[in-house]
Amino acid sequence: MIFTELRFIVIFILMAITFFAVPRHRRAMTLAVWGIVFYATFAGAWIGLVLVLTLLALFAAAPIAGMVIVGVLIAVKAMPQIVVPLGISYLAFELLHVVIERRRGKIARPPLCDLLAFAFFAPARIAGPIKRLPPFLASIQEAELSAENIWRGLLRILFGFAKKYLLADVLALTVAESSYVSSMKHAWTIVLAFALQLFFDFSAYSDIAIGFARILGIRLPENFNWPYLAANIREFWERWHITLSHWVRDYIFTPAGRALFRTRLRPYPAVIATISYLVTFAIVGAWHGLSAGFILWGVYHGLLLAAYNVIRMKVPRLSDAPWYRALAIATTFLFVTIGWVPFFLPLDKAIHMWALMFGAAR
Amino acid sequence: MKRRLVFVVAWLVIADLFVPPVLQRAEHARYESGTAFRFDNSDLFALGPMVRYLREHPRGDRRRVLFLGNSVIFGYGIDARDAIPARYEKRAGNARVFNAAINGQEMGDSYLIAKSVIDSVDALYVQLIAGQGARPILGKLIPVDDADAQRFHLERSNRVEAMLQSQLGRVWRLYGNSDRLQAAFFGTSTRQSLYLHKRELLFGRHPQPETPVHPQPPVPLFAPRSASGDQASLPPILRDLGELAVSHHKRIILIDVQHLAPAAAANFNAAYAPYAEIVIPEIPPALQYDRLHFTPDGADAVAATLLAHEAAQ
């Protein structure tokens, strides 16, 4: 884990000292320099590729920059023999956000230092959250050195480490039993353990990133909000990997829906929503990894969201009773948990696991 | 907030003062007591701390014997107290036995571990295994020289990271000794310990009582001897182990439970006995629960045989 490596800690401490030592208008430059040092330390030669992508996002025409960034993302994910550059999936989405918003005219071309600080911001470069440029730059300017920020940042980091090492890593040992799973009870135990492990692991990384940024007085967006307490699948995606959900909503789902609305499908909003969900979540699956399992997981969530959308169109008002909400939470959790199987197992083993879970195999 | 930060720093400084005495007591209890020693769940985590302890304490309270091998020596499927090393310890009475076997271990692993601690143990029992390789992670866990790292394709720690860890570990002892503390308290990492004892922690289930030792007649042991002593015909890893024993004046017994090297055994024994020997126990199938692993009675019989062989020497 890079966050526990002393090279990262040393770079972060030097970054923090210089960040507060320089005038405010030089802060972005400080973050950019230390971010590049961090990336070169942990990703080696890939720094060149990431620098080129960042410069493209700044200087190239939007369609060219977008195509190159997406092309590079697909290429590095499609080559299993190479080690994927550190945080490339997150970086690609952050740079695409800049390219698209500039094209839409919502943000002006940022200074080079600001964009480098954004692209190479060390705490968020490892596993997100996926930032947005305007609030990030505003946060840099507003950042204050305070005991409260340091205390709250350290607590958040400690909380993240506890989640990672005492919960996620322990649950991972149960998940590792999947290589010799043999009964229905065992299969459900493993899948349940994975559902919890993934949440604790991923949210721990977000907690640690948010904590390190908080020490600098920089607020990163929250990524998780008790996702397994969601009462429906749409709410789940408003609580799980929030920054990714918002990104795909803004840059894939909504544009896709608008485009379809201008076609002959206009009288069929349910069909438009279904296609938009399927396309969006197939891409979300592929973003996690270019394998059949990830894409199947994405399509499964697309189908769940489309089905929920149809149900809500037919039944606009659902019960507010506590028992109903409890049942809805349990049902949502069950569907989400079943869906995690192809996320952590190769497709053939995932099918076997499902068969075991539902008593169709021994 | 400032007060809280100062309080936490003060607490860490005070806690750090207690690390050396706590570590000393915990390690003494772990490594010098009579409790059966084995890496819980066959996890490599505790290997590094054990090697560091043995190197820092080259003499123990009793004679030290180290067992290396794979799941056969580890005692896969049986209690730690029923594995060959624990039964050996129980029968020997005056020895502290370390079961440093790990499932899937190969001869390269055994050689590197043996080399790192040979000056801190009195005798080594190494299971003869067909695989000659070593786990790459070993390069980060125990001291190995560059030649061995290259020969066995071991991973090495980043030099800057290792230097920083070493420097910080000297100043902040809790950080520098965290793996040793975990290994001393739990016998493995905290996470493995939580995983292994989750039912006890959640439901309060207690460990099973100790299995009694059933006296078994010693298993016949085949210790081939011939006068040829042709070292050149031996596999390199066997030669290395033989040379290691001779150069350090220590006894290394290679246990060939799978009868992998009956032909090489005579040459090896002629070349390296009495420092190093290959012994081939003849195991009745009734004392094995599969074609490879021993029942508790089988492990006990092997231990009795090894002790009988030792006494005969």
Task: Give an overview of the whole structure.
- The complex is a heterodimer of chains A (362) and B (313).
- Chain A is mainly α.
- In chain A, 74% of the residues lie in helices and 0% in strands.
- Chain B has helices spanning 2-17, 19-32, 47-56, 71-74, 84-92, 107-117, 138-141, 146-151, 159-171, 173-176, 178-186, 190-196, 198-203, 236-248, 262-272, 296-312; strands at 37-38, 63-68, 95-99, 123-127, 221-222, 251-255, 276-281.
- The mean pLDDT of chain B is 88.
- In chain B, strand 6 (251-255), helix 15 (262-272) and strand 7 (276-281) form a beta-alpha-beta unit.
- Chain B is an alpha/beta fold and 313 residues long.
- In chain B, helix 6 packs parallel to helix 14.
- In chain B, strands 1-3-2-4-6-7-5 form a 7-stranded mixed beta sheet, sandwiched between helices.
- Chain A binds chain B through residues 5-7, 10, 146-148, 150-151, 154, 165-166, 169-170, 173-174, and chain B through 1-2, 4-5, 8, 158, 160-161, 164-165, 168, 190-192, 194-195, 198.
Q: What are the SSEs and their pairings?
A:
The complex is a heterodimer of chains A (362) and B (313).
Chain A: H1 6-21, H2 27-43, H3 46-59, H4 62-78, H5 88-104, H6 112-119, H7 122-125, H8 133-142, H9 147-175, H10 184-215, H11 233-239, H12 242-261, H13 269-288, H14 292-314, H15 322-339, H16 341-344, H17 347-357
Chain B: H1 2-17, H2 19-32, E1 37-38, H3 47-56, E2 63-68, H4 71-74, H5 84-92, E3 95-99, H6 107-117, E4 123-127, H7 138-141, H8 146-151, H9 159-171, H10 173-176, H11 178-186, H12 190-196, H13 198-203, E5 221-222, H14 236-248, E6 251-255, H15 262-272, E7 276-281, H16 296-312
Parallel strand pairs in B: 1-3, 2-3, 2-4, 4-6, 6-7
Antiparallel strand pairs in B: 5-7
Helix pairs in contact in B: 2-11, 3-11, 5-16, 6-14
Shape of chain A: globular
The Cα radius of gyration of chain B reads 21 Å
Our count of domains of chain B comes out at: 1
Question: How many helical elements of chain A?
Answer: 17
Greatest contact pair? A-B, 16 and 17 residues
Overall pLDDT score of chain A = 93
Taken from the alpha-carbon principal axes, the silhouette of chain B is globular
Estimated helix fraction of chain B: 40-55%
Radius of gyration of chain A: 22 Å
Q: What quaternary form is this?
A: heterodimer
Distance between the termini of chain A: 37 Å
Element order of chain A: H for helix, E for strand: HHHHHHHHHHHHHHHHH
